[in-house]
């Protein structure tokens, strides 16, 4: 119940910010793929046991000044880790997956010198996020079977973290199309893990400004 209330509060906050008195608010949709894993806090180099998933959502870009904007978003993303061990000459694979509704608030900078005559531009994004877990899933499989998928809907793995990335926006068929490359680093410890793991993920998405 607390998770559902948090999600409703996050959605209401996003709508409130998006309808505030900024002159030229733009709305859009984005989707793509994410590669994620779990690792110790601050470990940027452990890229083992990566899992891949779909990610997508909605965003609103609120200009503050000519080169600076605030971009709140509401995204779905799955994060997790895939471990493989050997027991009695049998390979055992454990997949642990967390399905999140992630709410980043990004600060976006566009340099006027990056603009060209075609209307294309590069930009930089950075900011915090809150990710509210929808459910967690675990699957244990070996050489002989895929194993059953166990879903837990009352998980407490709410994640708080930071997002940073770069992007490119260009008009295609009279619509502004955005290409984003982002890195997420979670700061909250994940439950049901043998060590103090945090989430981290790299995503590549394509968006359209409506």
Topology:
Blueprint: H1 2-18, E1 26-40, E2 51-65, E3 68-87, E4 90-109, E5 121-141, E6 149-152, E7 159-172, E8 175-186, E9 197-209
Antiparallel strand pairs: 1-2, 1-9, 2-3, 3-4, 4-5, 5-6, 5-7, 7-8, 8-9
Molecular structure report:
- There is one protein chain.
- The chain has 210 residues and is mainly beta.
- The chain has one domain: Porin (Beta Barrel).
- Helices cover 8% and strands 64% of the residues.
- The protein has one helix and nine strands; from the N terminus they run αβββββββββ.
- The chain has one helix at 2-18, and strands spanning 26-40, 51-65, 68-87, 90-109, 121-141, 149-152, 159-172, 175-186, 197-209.
- An eight-stranded antiparallel beta barrel has the order 1-2-3-4-5-7-8-9.
- The longest helix has 17 residues, at 2-18.
- The two termini are 34 Å apart.
- The mean pLDDT is 82.
User: What's the structural domain tally?
Assistant: 1
* Top-tier CATH class: Mainly Beta
Strand adjacency order, main sheet? 1-2-3-4-5-7-8-9
Distance between the termini: 34 Å
Helicity, in percent? Answer: under 10%
Question: What is the CATH topology?
Answer: Porin
Rg from Cα = 19 Å
Helices and strands, in order, run as: HEEEEEEEEE
* Main β-sheet description: 8 strands, antiparallel, barrel
The structure class reads: mainly beta
Q: What low-confidence regions span 5 or more consecutive residues with pLDDT below 50?
A: none
CATH architecture: Beta Barrel
Shape, principal axes of CA atoms: elongated
Mean pLDDT: 82
């Amino acid at each position: 119940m607390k998770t559902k209330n948090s999600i409703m509060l996050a959605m209401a906050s996003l709508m409130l910010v998006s309808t505030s008195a900024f002159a030229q608010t733009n709305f859009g949709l984005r989707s793509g793929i994410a590669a994620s894993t779990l690792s110790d806090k601050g470990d940027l180099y452990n890229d083992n046991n990566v899992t891949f998933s779909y990610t997508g959502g909605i965003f609103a870009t609120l200009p503050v000044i000519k080169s600076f904007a605030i971009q709140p978003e509401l995204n779905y993303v799955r994060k997790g880790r895939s471990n493989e061990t050997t027991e009695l000459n049998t390979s055992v694979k454990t997949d642990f997956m967390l399905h999140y509704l992630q709410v980043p608030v990004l600060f976006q900078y566009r340099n006027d010198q990056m603009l060209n005559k075609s209307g294309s531009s590069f930009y930089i994004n950075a900011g915090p996020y809150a990710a509210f877990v929808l459910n967690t899933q675990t699957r244990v499989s070996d050489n002989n079977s895929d194993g059953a998928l166990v879903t837990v809907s009352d998980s407490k793995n709410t994640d708080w973290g930071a997002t940073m990335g770069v992007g490119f926006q260009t008009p295609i068929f009279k619509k502004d199309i955005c290409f984003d490359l982002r890195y997420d680093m979670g700061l909250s410890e994940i439950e049901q893990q043998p060590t103090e793991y945090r989430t981290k993920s790299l995503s590549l998405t394509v968006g359209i400004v409506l």
